[in-house]
Amino acid sequence: MPARMAPSPNFLQQALFAIKHEGVRLPCLIAALRQVSEGDMRAAFVAAPNGTFVRKLCFLWEAAHQRQVSGLDATGISATYVKMFDPKSYITGNSRRNARWRVDFNGLGDLAFCPVVRKTPALQDRLDRNVLADAAEFAKSIDQNMLERALTWAYLSETEGSFAIEGERPTHDKAALFAALLERAHDPRPLTEAYLVELQNATVTNPLDKAVQFRTEQNRLQRGALGAAGVSYVPPEPELSADLMQHLMALANQRPSHTDALAHAAAVSFAFVFIHPFMDGNGRLSRFLIQHCLGQSGQLPAGFLLPLSVAMNKHEDQYLQALIAFSKPARALCDVTWAGDDNYSYSWKPDADLWFRYMDLTEAVVFTLDMAKSALDIHLRQEVSFLTLFDEACKYINARHDLRGSDLATLIVTAFQNEGKLSNNRRKRFADRVQAHVLDDIEKTVTRLMQAAD
Q1: From CA 165, how far away is CA 176, in angstroms rounded?
Q2: pLDDT of 173-219, one tens digit each?
Q3: Is 2 left (phi over 0), alpha (psi -120 to 50) or beta?
C-alpha cells in the first residue's frame, strides 16, 4: 500500500480502512473496536453521519461494548439501509435491520455467533454446479428398485467411511448404530441439546463416554505426543461452547430460504466440530449433521443420502486442510501448560472468543461442495453402473450355466474389482464347485460389459 494511502495507526482509522477495502472480517473489526473510545466513535459519526462504513462500525462498536454510543442522535440518518455483508461477496442469512444505524445485519447468524463464508471464485464455481439439483435429477432417472439398492450401498459405505476417517474399522454393533443414526437424518426434528445428546449416545458404544449434556470441562485434540506440544487443537472453553451451541442450533434449524442448502449444511457441520460440544463422538456427529441439514432442506428425495464420508476419506489430505484452515490459527490463541499425567491448564489470549464467534468457514464449505459432487458423480453413479453391470452379467451367465447364486455374485464382484480377471487363488477356491470354462465365461462377460460401459 502506498504510504500516502495508508491509514493512521489508531484502531478506528485502521478499522475504517479495513472494512472499506478488505471486507467484513468480524474478529479483527470487533477486536479493534474494543480498543476504540466512545468519544472517538462519536466524533467519526458526527463527521460523516450518512457514511456507509462509519455506520457499520458504529453498529459493531455497540455490539463490541454492549452499550450505545451516547451523546448523539443517530435517528437523523437520511441514508438508506446498508447491508453488512454484500450478497455478491458473502453467503448471507436473514435480514436483521437496525433502525438506529440503518444497518441490515444479514450474516448467517447473529452478532453472538455468525460464521462467515466468503464467495471466493472457487466457492462461486462450486455453488454454480448445483449438486443437489443434479442429485434429485439422478434419483428420478433410475428405477425405484435400482435406487433402493444404490442407497443401501450408500448408507453402508457412509457408515464405514465416517469411521475410516478416524482410523477405525467399526464392529458390527458400532456400524449398526451409526447406520440407524443416518436413517434419522430425514426425520423432521429440530436440533436441541437433548436431541444432540441422544444422537451422541448413538455414535459411541462406551457407556462412560455417553454424554448427558454439552460438556462442562475443557477438552483438547492430542496428536502424536503427550504434553502441550502434542495438543493440536483446543476447542472453546465450556461456557463459551455452550453459548455458541445455542446459536448454532438456531442456525441449523432455520436455514434462510435464499441460502444454499449444501453450503448451510457444511457451515453447520464444521462449526459443530470446531465447537466440539462433547468429550467424544464429535467427528462422526458433525458428518451426520451434513446429512441432517440436507434431509431437512427438502431438496433431496426422502431417504436419499450422498455418501460424503466416502469421498472425504478418499481425499483425506484435503479434509485435513479444510480443518486446519480454522484450527491452526485457533490453536495459537490458547497457551497450554502440561504438569504431567492428565494435568493440563489453558490460558486464552485476549479476544480469543471472537475467533470462535465469527468463524471463517470458507475453505470448509468449498471442500464440502467438492465432496458432494464426488459423492454423486463418482461414488453413487459408479455404484449404479456396477449394479447394472452385475445384473446383466448374472442374467447372461445364468442363461448359460448352472451355479450357486452366492458363488456367481462373489465371482462377478471379484472379477469387476480386478479389471475383469479372476486370480489363480480365486479359481482354486471355486474349482470344486465351478468348472474352468464357466470361470472363463465369467471373466469374458465381465470384461465385455466393463469395456462397453467405458
Answers
A1: 17
A2: 778 878 888 888 988 899 999 999 999 998 888 888 999 999 999 99
A3: beta
**Using an 8 Å Cβ cutoff, are 439 and 407 in contact?**
no
**What is the H or E stretch that residue 82 is in?**
strand 82-83
66 & 130 share domain? no
Contact (CB, 8 A) for 56 and 97? no
Residue at grid coordinates 495507526: 9
- Mean pLDDT, the chain, whole residue set: 93
- Domain for residue 111, yes or no? no
Residues 6+ apart with CB under 8 A from 350: none
Neighbours of 388 (CB within 10 A): 14
* Alpha-helical segments (H) within 276-341: 282-297, 308-314, 316-331
pLDDT in tens, 314-350: 999 999 999 999 999 999 999 999 998 889 999 999 9
When divided into structural domains, the chain yields a total of 3
Q: Which residues contact 254 (CB under 8 A, 6 or more apart)?
A: 94
Same-domain status, 125 and 98? no
Range of the domain at 52: 11-104
Strand partners, 116: 360
Q: Are 308 and 287 in contact (CB under 8 A)?
A: yes
Instruction: Compute the distance between CA of residue 416 and CA of residue 394 in angstroms, rounded to an integer.
Output: 13
**Sequence-distant contacts of 126-133: CB under 8 A, at least 24 apart:** 126/366, 126/369, 126/370, 126/373, 127/260, 127/263, 127/369, 129/369, 129/373, 131/262, 131/306, 131/369, 131/372, 131/373, 131/376, 132/261, 132/262, 132/294, 132/297, 132/299, 132/300, 132/372, 133/299
How far apart CA 139 and CA 257 sit, in angstroms, is 23
**What is the band of 29 on the pLDDT scale with cuts at 50, 70, 90?**
very high
Q: Helix, strand or coil for residue 97?
A: strand
